[in-house]
TrEMBL record:
One of its GO terms (molecular function) is catalytic activity. It comes from Fonsecaea nubica. This is PLD phosphodiesterase domain-containing protein. Residues 653-680 form the PLD phosphodiesterase domain. PROSITE patterns: PLD (PS50035). InterPro entries: PLipase_D/transphosphatidylase. SUPFAM superfamilies: Phospholipase D/nuclease.
Length: 718
């Protein structure tokens, strides 16, 4: 099993490859050890939405047999508990950070979550907190939000929906202040939705399409590196022949032509509350009406921490305020507004206050917390591009899915092998990749000793940026992969599991948000026909490879029962709740996993000089520790018996699984906002390592969730 220390060490190692301006420790990831779980009024680490503290008897039910709930909801209650526990007893400081996804596509504004309950509401608790502060001190509430529409500024300025939402929360609805004492308190609203207009304020074209076209040369170099990996090695003739025909640059050009990679892929999706550097809450639950007292059809998880992890949450928010205080002219959607809470709402574009210094000499406990997140804009030398850094992650997913589609004619061995090798080239450690390339050359010369020595060493060589022969796409672009630290940590933890893996997730495949135009263009270009046509779904092949490693590592455990168990959202085809559902097929998921695992076994057979050389290619960046892959003749049996995928709550349409949970070996637990399916939003979450706390979580939530889930019989391979 990996540990929090292992995950943090690897993230720090990746960071060390980049210049100081591009390093992300303290922003996208941060390990703290001065913490306790929960808050004084509620010491559990997790919050069970919508039924804290336990499952009711009537779930799952139906529309006529719902379990009754009332104000406050578990999320409203937890919000007030975390807020109260974080308040300064001396009343000398008040700095509160909020982050949420705000859905403004619904008829009713999301203010109900805050205003429900009158004097007992979340809004009243927030206003009371700032009003009790010393009148000479300025309390600050900063709110980072975002959503997926393309007309946020007009919603603020013209129809006023955004503006009125916050005025309903923080004023009395008639424009009158609800504060009695403090005259300096301010609220700052930041809308984070980096999006490039066709023409920016200066009248010049935004650089998106040209920047993407410039990357085609980098993709060509990547494919050349892939060729050098394979050419001349034993039994690779078919792979080499097929690879020479794969025009990756042309594939990406097709996606650019369709507009797929210019889609507005990034907005804040994190759900955070941080108070005075003392308490914090994060998870999957948004601060909107679906989570207020009378709503209970969304199943979700939140986590509460007291201690320095709260400072990490503030720093994450501060990163976005750095951007929002200096929004580039090419960004047509992001904006900021501020207002004094003691006066009628007069919104200005004043710069929001930055994070104050919080004391670190207070002892909160001895619990380790690893904060991991996704962050959005460019860093270091790439700041001038002003486009979400997630587009590089999207390019990686697009390339891996393209490789999988393209090589289907070669059969599952070739299809899986090429996907794994492409992923190996896209590892984060340029020096390890250079060493592997040299090792491949040595094998071709019949010299295997140096390679064996390298794989046998307990510690890999430190990365170096100066060695000739190394090609690393992230170094070329000056993009630090720690920008998506939460995704990396999830894959790393799962791949190194030794006993068990649990995922409770909305879904694992990103739906075809780009529409039919994109899928049709690609299917026509490659002449793809059923059953091999692309359906528009993006699959997380890094996660599938990690599953393959975990199944190989756990199949010989002493208990004999180690397995991967996944519970996904309802699989409904009637579209009654749209995006809350998961329309991807579990059969298709298992098919792709088996293909990847066949690729692992196939690559493992390439050379007798260095057993498992090519599967170790995927481990080049220490993402995975080595394990012999599952033999090809056992793959179907292992996946069918040990890879268990269920649908939540009887697969009925009245309840929806929105969790983003990962649990490894009964000790490591992730709670946050980052979905396991490919997505490129800004996220926040935390890992803990504590067997007792994980056992408590299982008893409160997971055991009931798994018992109520079902294995469907109507989701075949596509």
């Amino acid at each position: 099993m990996t540990s929090i220390d292992d995950l943090a060490r690897r993230l720090e190692q990746i960071d060390s490859n980049f210049d100081k301006d591009t390093q992300l420790k303290g922003q996208s990831f941060d390990k703290t050890e001065n913490n306790s779980f929960g808050v004084p009024d509620s010491t559990d680490f997790t919050v069970f939405l919508s039924f804290e503290p336990q499952w009711p008897d009537k779930v799952p039910g139906n529309s006529a047999d719902d379990a009754p709930t009332k104000f406050p909801s578990p999320l409203q209650r937890a919000f007030k508990q975390v807020l109260k526990a974080g308040l300064d007893t001396d009343k000398k400081k008040c700095f509160i950070d909020l982050a949420t996804l705000f859905d403004l596509t619904t008829p009713s504004p999301p203010s109900g979550f805050f205003t429900e309950g009158g004097q007992e509401s979340v809004a009243s608790a927030l206003l009371s907190a700032v009003d009790e502060i010393d009148p000479e001190v300025q309390p600050v509430i900063r709110i980072v939000c975002g959503e997926w529409s393309d007309d946020a500024p007009s919603k603020w300025e013209e129809d006023g929906k955004w503006r009125k939402t916050f005025e309903e929360i923080f004023w009395d609805g008639q424009g009158k202040s609800r504060l009695k004492k403090n005259k300096k308190a301010i609220v700052c609203v930041g809308y984070y939705r980096p999006i490039l207009a066709t023409v920016n304020k200066e009248g010049t074209y935004a650089p998106t399409e040209q920047w993407l076209k410039d990357r085609l040369g980098d993709v060509t170099n990547l494919v050349k590196q892939l060729n050098s990996f394979v050419t001349g090695l034993p039994n690779t003739e078919r792979l080499t022949s097929a690879m020479q025909k794969f025009d990756a640059a042309s594939y990406l050009t097709t996606l650019i032509k369709s507009g797929y990679l210019q889609k507005h892929i990034s907005w804040n999706h994190g759900k955070v509350l941080a108070v005075n550097g003392k308490t914090m809450m994060t998870g999957g639950g948004n601060y909107w009406n679906c989570y207020k007292g009378d709503q209970h059809d969304i199943i979700d998880q939140q986590a509460k921490v007291t201690g320095e992890a709260a400072i990490s949450a503030h720093r994450w928010a501060d990163y976005f305020w750095d951007y929002l205080n200096n929004i580039p002219g090419s960004d047509s959607q992001s904006f900021r507004r501020s207002a004094n809470l003691s006066e009628p709402p007069k919104w200005t574009e004043a710069v929001a206050p930055r994070l104050p210094t919080f004391a670190k000499d207070i002892r909160y406990g001895n619990k380790k917390v690893l904060t991991v997140s996704r962050i959005g804009d460019w860093h270091g030398k790439m700041k001038g591009v002003a486009y979400p850094i997630g587009i590089v992650d999207a390019l990686r997913d697009a390339l891996l899915n393209g490789v999988y589609l393209y090589f289907h004619n070669g059969g599952p061995r070739q299809q899986g092998a090429m996907t794994i090798l492409t992923y190996a080239i896209l590892t984060e450690d340029g020096e390890a990749l250079r060493r592997l390339t040299e090792a491949a050359t040595n094998i071709k010369r019949g010299v295997g000793g140096a390679v064996l020595d390298w794989f046998a060493s307990l510690t890999r060589p430190e990365p170096s940026l100066e060695k000739q022969g190394s090609f690393n796409p992230y170094q070329t672009l000056n993009v630090n992969p720690n920008a998506w630290a939460s995704r990396f940590a999830r894959v790393c933890a799962i791949a190194n599991a030794k006993e068990s893996v649990i995922l409770c997730q909305h879904r694992l495949a990103c739906p075809p948000y780009a529409g039919e135009k994109v899928t049709n263009l690609l299917n026509e270009k490659w002449r793809l026909q059923d059953p091999n046509k692309w359906d528009g779904y993006l699959w997380p092949f890094d996660l599938l490879i990690a599953f393959g490693y975990a199944l190989a590592r756990t199949r010989n455990t002493k208990t004999g029962s180690a397995k991967i168990t996944i519970v996904l959202a309802t699989h409904c085809q009637d579209g009654t709740r749209g995006d809350w559902e998961d329309k991807a097929s579990i059969g298709d998921l298992k098919k792709k996993l088996k293909v990847v695992m066949r690729g692992m076994a196939h690559l493992n057979s390439f050379t007798r000089l260095v057993p498992s050389f090519f599967t170790n290619a995927a481990a080049a960046a220490d993402v995975f520790t080595h394990v012999d892959p599952v033999p090809e003749n056992l793959i179907d049996k292992v996946v069918d018996e040990r890879f268990i995928v269920k649908r939540a709550l009887g697969n009925i349409k009245w309840y929806y699984n929105h969790c983003k949970i990962v649990c490894v070996d009964g000790r490591l637990l992730y709670v946050g906002s980052d979905n396991a399916y490919p997505s490129f939003n800004e996220e926040h979450g935390v890992w803990i390592e504590d067997a007792a706390e994980v056992d408590s979580w299982k008893k409160k939530f997971w055991n009931g969730m798994e018992a109520r889930a079902v294995v469907p019989t109507d989701e075949p391979e596509k």
